[in-house]
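Z., the sequence and structure:
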Amino acid sequence: MVLNQRIQASYDILHAMPEAGFQEFRTSAWLAEQVRAAGFQVATGLAGTGVVAVLKGGEPGPAVAVRADMDALPHLVGGREVQIHSCGHDAHCAMVLAAALDLAGTGIRRGELRILFQPAEETMYGAARMIEAGVLDGLDILLGIHLRPIQEARTGQATPALMHGACAIMEATLVGRPAHGARPHLGVNALDAAAAAISAVNAIHLDPVQPWSCKATRLRAGGVSPNIIPDRAELTLDLRAQRNDTMQALIARTREAVRAGAATVGASAETALLASVPGAEYDPAMVDLAREAIRAVLGGQGLLDPVVSPGGDDFHRYVEARPELKTGFIGLGCDLAPGLHDPAMSFDRSALVHGAGILLFMARRLLD
């Protein structure tokens, strides 16, 4: 009862102050205040707004971290851009904070507990900046959790391994030659180049056994005058692949397709990766421990198989940077609808106590 009340109160506070990536000043200050008051040693300002809280046991043991992301997402509402917690990061912070405060109250027997409140997951750069700040130094195990849409898991269910795919955002700059709209033969239309590039990308074929996709998501071209052939276009592409090796092949093929497509109309093209995150790779022992924790909290009927998701998470940057790091990542059912990143997203808040309980079980097993 106390754990649930703590989570719900924290969630209400966090939900009411959504902030953009690397701008989570109020969020991080409030979280730092809570863990500091509980007896953690607290470092703030990592990666700008990141927080690391440390609690040490009396005996030698592993260094175990639990990570929660803090940032909200921008949405256009009534013609105005606003930040909304439409991906559940406020819920992640509430669960991790509740588990942290419970562990501080009882203490840990051995090792070291670190709580990582990470900024800017949605930008795909938050984890990388935290790594640069040294949060992985001496770390052995890293755990995480994420709410799941109703299509993947219901309230009372959880998966011990949320198998995120790799994702990348690529931008292509297509350069043609301007001309009067009445004399198109004197120019090279960058919009035609973009259309040809998109067609070439849509004609890519990779192993159909491996899930992947590549699609255009944004196009900027043309100026204020409608009678001028545009000489420049910027095309944004969203790339997804379930396996990291498939993603590397997809990136290479997409670069080639964009350049070849633009060339068919006489334009040139340059491509750049704006951001990317790798797919999930977990330690088998952490997945087994997560299974045990889910059974203990939700019963056998609540344990799902590993869930494959085309979504990505920069959590996986940590193991990419430190391959020997043992990681585990829970997917928590909570009847979330209509979906993640929808401004109208809502979920069953009673499930938050399940997530905190699973994390608590795992941390205690590792540190007691």
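The longest helix spans residues 244-263. Residues 161 and 306 are 5 Å apart (CA to CA).

Let me know what you think.
H.
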